[in-house]
Amino acid sequence: MHMKRVIGGIKFIALVLALIVSLNGACRLLCFKTAHGIKQARCLYAQPENTIDVAFLGSSHMHVNINTALLWEKYGIAAYDYSAAEQPLWMTYYYLKEICKYQNPKVIVLDFFAPANFLDDYQYKYIADNFYGLRPSLNKLDMLKASVEPTRVLDFFPALVSYHARYQELEQEDFDFLFETTEEKSAFKGYTPYFKESQWDKPEFDAEDPLPLTDKSQKYLDKIIDFCNENGIEMFFIVTPYIKEHEPDRRYEYVERLCAERGIFFEDDTEWYDTIGINFDEDFFDFSHLNYVGSCKYTEHIGNGLKYRFDLPDHRGDERYESWDRNVLEIQKKVDEAGW
User: Fold this and answer.
1) Which segments within the chain are labelled E, that is strand?
2) What is the SS3 assignment for 336?
3) Are the C-beta atoms of 290 and 298 separated by less than 8 Å?
4) Taking a C-beta distance cutoff of 8 angstroms, is the pair 42, 185 a contact?
5) Which of 64, 167, 269, 314 is deepest in the core (most CB within 10 A)?
6) Strands (E), 21-170
7) First CA to last CA across the chain, in angstroms?
8) CATH architecture of the region 34-161+176-338
9) Where are the alpha helices (DSSP H) in 148-232?
10) Which residues lie below 8 Å from residue 181, measured CB to CB, with a gap of 6+?
11) pLDDT per residue over 109-119, tens digit each?
12) For the whole model, what pTM was predicted?
């Protein structure tokens, strides 16, 4: 009788383990997989601990316009684009707290495109890209509570409620993800190049009358600044090149004045097109993002600025940073495949 109980217990444990493994496999297969924020968040956890010196935070302008491979290859800067589509500042604040659980960045570079252009307190269009890549934690739940109305929390949590029906639309990418190793993920540094050209007219205005951010954006900007000051993280606030409009330009003027008051580096690079060498017939993917060639021009500009403003080490040749060498090879492979 005792032996039967032991065998029964073993079978029960085996069944539970099988169910857990099956459920985990199903979740990995069905979960959303985009390079608009989800991949950027997931692959952070594969990065060697405390190797990221510069974290680029904010909207897709960061992971499309900032070429981490070039920053490494030319300047030896160990950078990561930890950003997501149209990310508001309240989500950026929780991203900042999340990356600091695993990394000790010396500098954060914060993008102001989304706070200047999208003004609602709850922005649902790209919430999945911002939310689903983070590991389960109280920090993730706090981000969700700040980002959705109370009646909509259960629309996004637990994550399985959102993607359980994806079995009807699975692609090869979903199956590849099942077998992707931590080493492979570590070679991804957030940068997602675009390979297409579009033509635009160069904006020709410079706002002088500042327009404040929304109350909610200002609240979380203050939280970001306080967190960085408390943790010895230097700040560099930027606007990346895009085809801007007048009203957002007034908000950039407000941020510039705020930074001057608080001793934070700020640069609106929509005012430096010529210095950067941006060609409006060749260097844009769409009105909001640079293509690969444009991103390389802009990354060189940012790299020079980072090296000039901050005391950043050059880790080239250090074995702990070999994943950045692999990142260079991965980006070059994409460029070759695109024929650029």
Assistant:
1) 54-58, 79-83, 107-111, 234-239, 265-268
2) helix
3) yes
4) yes
5) 64
6) 54-58, 79-83, 107-111
7) 72
8) 3-Layer(aba) Sandwich (3.40)
9) 160-163, 172-178, 182-186, 215-230
10) none
11) 999 999 999 99
12) 0.89
